[in-house]
Amino acid sequence: MKVQSQRMPLESQDTVGESALKALLAPRSIAILGASSDFRKISGRPLKHLLDKGYAGRIYPVNPRAESIGGLRAYPSVGAIEGEVDLAIIVLPASEVLGAVRELGAKNVPAAIIFSSGFSEMGDAGRQHEREVIEAARAGGVRICGPNCLGLINAFDKVIATFSQYADAETPSGPVGFVTQSGAFGTAIAALARRRGLGLGYFVNTGNEADLNFSEIMREVICDPRVKVGAGYIEGLKNGNDFTALAEAAMAAAKPLVVTKVGRLGAGARAAASHTGSLAGDDVVFDGIARQYGVIRARNEEHMLDIVEVLSCCKLPEGNGIGLLTQSGGAGVLMADRAQEVGLSVPILQPETQKALHKVIPGFGAVGNPVDVTGQFVADPNLLLESVKLMLADPNIDVGIIWFQLMEGHVEKLVQVLKEIRDQVTKPFVVCWVAAPEAGVRALRDLGIAVLRGAEPAVDAVAALVHYAQARRTWLERSGQRKDIKIPRIDIQSGGVLSTMDGVQLLDRNGVPHTATVLAKSADEAANAARTIGYPVAVKIESPDILHKTEAGGVMLRLNNDDDVRSAFDTIMDRARRHDPAARLEGVIVQGMAGGDTEFVIGLQNDPVFGPVIMAGLGGVLIEVLRDVAFRKVPLCEGEAGDMLDDLHGKAVLGGVRGRPAVDRKALTQMICAVSRLGAALGPRLSTLDLNPIMLGPKTATAVDWLMMLNANDGSVPGHHTS
Amino acid sequence: MKVQSQRMPLESQDTVGESALKALLAPRSIAILGASSDFRKISGRPLKHLLDKGYAGRIYPVNPRAESIGGLRAYPSVGAIEGEVDLAIIVLPASEVLGAVRELGAKNVPAAIIFSSGFSEMGDAGRQHEREVIEAARAGGVRICGPNCLGLINAFDKVIATFSQYADAETPSGPVGFVTQSGAFGTAIAALARRRGLGLGYFVNTGNEADLNFSEIMREVICDPRVKVGAGYIEGLKNGNDFTALAEAAMAAAKPLVVTKVGRLGAGARAAASHTGSLAGDDVVFDGIARQYGVIRARNEEHMLDIVEVLSCCKLPEGNGIGLLTQSGGAGVLMADRAQEVGLSVPILQPETQKALHKVIPGFGAVGNPVDVTGQFVADPNLLLESVKLMLADPNIDVGIIWFQLMEGHVEKLVQVLKEIRDQVTKPFVVCWVAAPEAGVRALRDLGIAVLRGAEPAVDAVAALVHYAQARRTWLERSGQRKDIKIPRIDIQSGGVLSTMDGVQLLDRNGVPHTATVLAKSADEAANAARTIGYPVAVKIESPDILHKTEAGGVMLRLNNDDDVRSAFDTIMDRARRHDPAARLEGVIVQGMAGGDTEFVIGLQNDPVFGPVIMAGLGGVLIEVLRDVAFRKVPLCEGEAGDMLDDLHGKAVLGGVRGRPAVDRKALTQMICAVSRLGAALGPRLSTLDLNPIMLGPKTATAVDWLMMLNANDGSVPGHHTS
Question: B396 to chain A: which residues are within 8 Å by CB?
Answer without folding.
Answer: none
